[in-house]
Write a structure and sequence with these properties.
Blueprint (H helix, E strand, L loop, with lengths): L1 H47 L8 H38 L1
Helix pairs in contact: 1-2
Length: about 100
């Protein structure tokens, strides 16, 4: 009876370990996708700067500055997340 109980507990522990391993894999993928999205969004903002051609030069300059600022925010966000996740990503590589 004790042997059967130990096997049950071992099976439960193994299942939990496998679930956590899968969570680590999913987390690594999600972090990569978030960083890629930040890159895409920054590029998207940069591409928006010249879309309006029917505006005054002053407004065009303002729109360009607005787009550049938002692209910069996305790049700073990516850099910040990369710094925050550096330890987690290094640990997750080992898993």
């Amino acid at each position: 009876e004790l042997s059967a109980a130990l096997r049950v507990e071992w099976a439960k522990a193994k299942a939990r370990a496998e679930q956590w391993h899968e969570e680590v894999i999913l987390l690594k993928e999600e972090m990569c996708r978030v960083l890629a999205f930040c890159d895409w969004k920054a590029s998207w903002w940069e591409s928006q700067a010249d879309r309006r051609t029917d505006v005054s030069p002053e407004l065009a300059e303002s729109l360009g500055a607005y787009c550049a600022e938002n692209a910069s925010k996305e790049r700073r966000m990516r850099a910040s997340l990369e710094r925050k996740w550096c330890g987690i990503r290094a640990w997750a590589r080992e898993v």
